Amino acid sequence: MSKRVLVVGDVMTDVIVRPEGPVVIGSDRRAAIETRPGGSGANQAVWLGAAGVEVAFAARVGMVDKASHEGRFRLCGVTPYLAGDEKLHSGMLVTLVDPSGERSFLTDRGANLNLSAEDLPDSLLDNTGLLLVSGYSFFAPGPRAAVQSLLSRARRRGTQIAIDPASIGFLGEVGPSVFLGWVGMADWIFANADEAEMLTGTADLALQMERLGAQFKSVVIKRGRDGATVGSKGGIELSRPAPVVPVVDTTGAGDAFAAGFIAALMAPLQLEMCLERGIENGARAVQHVGGQPGRL
């Protein structure tokens, strides 16, 4: 699988807030506040670029920011295909990070909500070996129709498809059966432990593999501090632990994992090495603030 990876998802500016203690309702709390480039799809594309993978990224941004976003993606080794929106601004996300590194989000998806089929032409699939779609694209009607059209075209071409559910909050709003119906059959799913439990209705890892494996050929479950597991409808195939590292911010750790795994898959390397590369990338991600490598 030496072809490129095409990522479709959101572009966001992350405003990362790390309060010194609990938020005081109606009053002040000192905090460290930083801005970082973000968005689940954008994070995945940049991590793939950092791994040396040929990667393209398709999304929609505010027209005023289009050139600057394109320049930054190119500097990160990503070929951008960004549509400019003249009405909506680029997406923004406020991330509240507690002392343990756990995150809560406030999201304004902005121009991402206007992603259309015209933004995702057939030419994007040329020389594409794997299409990675962020689950956020399914949670609004316009983007959902756009990515469903692209997925149909990818299936006709025989392009591998990977899905990252992306948001336990939005999954809970629409319900697992609705989300899985929107997605359809695919080759890979990269779900975290909470998403896997919600999508399957069970906390049993083997049952999660079996149930998700009925729709996805290969199932990867990201388990945070417990590492990650790969399987299929036949059950668990491989599990690996995560290294013990200092956790600064877990933003983008799942995106980094997916990118590390897919980079190894495209090499191509054995499944065990794909899992290890994903875990290594996730461990790197939690040791700095922001969802992308270093201070990009």
From TrEMBL:
<feature type="domain" description="Carbohydrate kinase PfkB">
    <location>
        <begin position="3"/>
        <end position="292"/>
    </location>
</feature>
<dbReference type="InterPro" id="IPR002173">
    <property type="entry name" value="Carboh/pur_kinase_PfkB_CS"/>
</dbReference>
<dbReference type="Pfam" id="PF00294">
    <property type="entry name" value="PfkB"/>
</dbReference>
<dbReference type="GO" id="GO:0016301">
    <property type="term" value="F:kinase activity"/>
</dbReference>
<keyword id="KW-0808">Transferase</keyword>
<protein>
    <submittedName>
        <fullName>Ribokinase</fullName>
    </submittedName>
</protein>
<dbReference type="InterPro" id="IPR029056">
    <property type="entry name" value="Ribokinase-like"/>
</dbReference>
<dbReference type="InterPro" id="IPR011611">
    <property type="entry name" value="PfkB_dom"/>
</dbReference>
<keyword id="KW-0418">Kinase</keyword>
